[in-house]
Input
Amino acid sequence: MPGKARGRGGAGSTGLHTADDHSESEEENDLRLDDILHEIKEFHAETGKNLGVIKQEVTELRESFGHLSMDAAESRIAEGENCQNAMTKALLHSMRLEKQLEERCEQMESHSPKCNVRIHSVCEKITERGDMVKFVKEIIRDKLGMGLEKISIAAAHRIGKKTRTEDRPRSIIVRFQNENMKQRVLRAAWETKDLKIRDKRIYFEEDFTDRIYKERGQCGRKQLLEKNIKSRIVYPAKLKVFEKDGQYKLFDNPQAAAEGVQAYGVMVDIQAARPDFETTLKAAGWQTAGAGKKRTRENEDELMASVKTLLDSQNRHGKDND
Output
C-alpha cells in the first residue's frame, strides 16, 4: 500500500511539473514574439528612414544629370550658332566676290566690241566659200553707197555654231579699225530703207555683250516687225515703238516692253531673272552682326577667323562621328 501511495504521489507530482513548464514556455514565447515584433518595427522604421535617404540621393543624382544635360545642350546650341554665323559670313562674302567678278567681266566684255558691227539674216550659202571681208565691203559699197577709201575692216566672220536649217543663218560680226568707221557704217545702214540681199531683208546693229543681247531679244521687236510695226532698240535694252501719228512709246526695260507690246497683239515670254541670293538670305534672317560695315582689314580678319572656326568645327564633328 505504501508503495502504491508513493507511486500515485510520484505520478501526481510529475503531472503538476509539466503544467508549470508549459505555462513558463508560453510566457517565454510571448516574450520572444514581443521582441520579434519590436525588432520588426525598429527594422521597418530604420528601413523607411534609409529609403528616404536613398530617394533623396536619387533625386539629387537626377538633378545633377539634368544640369549636366542642360549644360551640354546649351554648349552644343552655342556652338551651332557660332558655326551658322561663320557660314553666313563666308557665304555672303563669296556672293559679294562673285558679284564683283561678274561686274568686272561684264565691264571688260563691254569694251571689246566697241568697234564691232553685227549683220543678221545673211544667207550662209552666199558666203560659204568666199572672202568674208571682201563680201562685207561689197555690201557697204553696193547696198549702202559708201566709198571704201576710208573704210578699213580688221576682220569679219560668222559667229556661233552652224545650224542645219537656212531659216536662221548665223550672224556676221565685223570688226573695223576704229569706232568712227563703225558709227558711219551703222548710220548709213539705218538710213537705208529696205536693205536686202537676194530679196531677203538684212539688218545691221551694234555688237553687245551676251547679257545685253538676251535682254534685247526679249523686247519683242521681231514680233513687231512681223506685224509691220516700226520699232527700234535703244541702248542698252530699251524698246521704242513708233505710232502712226508720229508719236512713239519708250519702254525702259524688257519687262516693261513685254507688257507694253501686248497692246499691239504681241506676246513675249520673259525669262525669269537670276535671283539675288544675298538679298534672299538677308530677308530670311541670314544677317551677320558685322553686315553693313565698311570693308576694312579688321573685317577681313574677322571673316577669316570665322571661316577657320567653321572648318575646325567641321573637323571636330567629323572625328566625333568616326
User: Anything to note?
Assistant: The chain has three domains: 27-110+278-313, 121-210, 219-270. Residues 1-17, 288-295 have pLDDT under 50 and may be disordered.
